[in-house]
């Protein structure tokens, strides 16, 4: 009897534990993130976001809710060694009413909690779409389309260099501006 009782317990240790298999959109993010750098974008959008056709824009249907996609993408970016997100959202979102778009109040609470301490810059939706069209001619933009059906909820993540700060860039530009013209100098030797 003891052997029969121990067998199921022993079998539970022998069965390998597999991590959840990534979905196609998660695999796409995992594959492309190492290739993306500063000035590239990852955009997480609602169901009605237009399919943009600039050559550098790639749209992937996730079949997932937006908050889940934003969390997963931010988590992937946080684990990267080379990029950090700069967040832009539609300036219209604070003005969308619950009466006109049921669920918007809950969404605003969820996205605020999801973004945490990340600063958010607000820009008009049409301006952001226009910016994507312009940039899509020279840079890669990954658009992840979600199942969300609340308007003006797009989350635009412009990637910036994680290992080079804005302060370091400003200091570099000032040093270059102050340098006297002459032969190239490659710094201390």
Task: Explain what you see.
There is one protein chain. The chain is of the alpha/beta class and 189 residues long. It has one domain: RbsD-like domain (RbsD-like fold). Helices cover 38% and strands 18% of the residues. It has six helices and six strands. The chain has a six-stranded mixed sheet, with helices on both faces. Helix 3 runs parallel beside helix 4 (104-115). The longest helix is centred in the middle third of the chain and has 14 residues, at 66-79. The protein is globular. The model is unreliable at 5-18 (pLDDT under 50).
| SSE order | HHEEHEHEHEEH
CATH superfamily annotation = RbsD-like domain
Please name the CATH architecture.
3-Layer(aba) Sandwich
By CATH, the topology is RbsD-like fold
Cα(first) to Cα(last) distance is: 78 Å
- In the sheet with the most strands, the strands line up as 2-5-1-6-3-4
Contiguous runs where pLDDT drops below 50 for at least 5 residues: 5-18
The major β-sheet equals: 6 strands, mixed
- Work out the count of structural domains: 1
Average pLDDT over all residues: 89
List the helices and strands and how they pair.
Layout: H1 2-14, H2 24-32, E1 41-45, E2 57-61, H3 66-79, E3 83-90, H4 104-115, E4 120-123, H5 125-135, E5 141-145, E6 155-161, H6 166-178
Parallel strand pairs: 1-5, 2-5, 3-4
Antiparallel strand pairs: 1-6, 3-6
Offer a few descriptive terms.
189 residues, alpha/beta, RbsD-like fold, six-stranded mixed β-sheet, 38% helix, 18% strand
